[in-house]
Recover the amino acids of this structure.
């Protein structure tokens, strides 16, 4: 089972193990990580925005244009920002480290 390390908003890491082939959003929800995911993974919001650690970012498939458009609507976007609903955790991503941004914007409210 791959592990994922979430750097929570308070700066503390939380390491979790997960079955493979699930989205990072699903992993967060299953492990009590403070990630909203208002659209439940349909890529209609940006409340699951995460900042991927640099070395790991290069190992992810490229984001689609729709994902990049949604990221444009949120706070604190960086060059390694992704939507957690679009990152599928596999064995190849064992040790993936992501940080939660200081804030998110829920356009659905």
């Amino acid at each position: 089972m791959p592990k994922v390390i979430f750097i929570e908003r308070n700066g503390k890491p939380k390491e979790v193990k997960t079955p493979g082939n699930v989205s990072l959003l699903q992993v967060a929800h299953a492990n009590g990580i403070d990630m909203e995911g208002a659209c439940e993974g349909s890529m209609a919001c940006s409340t699951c925005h995460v900042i991927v650690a640099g070395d790991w970012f290069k190992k992810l498939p490229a984001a689609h244009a729709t994902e990049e458009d949604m990221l444009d609507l949120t706070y604190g976007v960086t060059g390694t920002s992704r939507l957690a609903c679009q990152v599928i955790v596999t064995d190849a991503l064992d040790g993936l480290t992501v940080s939660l941004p200081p804030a998110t914007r829920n356009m659905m409210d």
Observations:
- The longest helix spans residues 24-30.
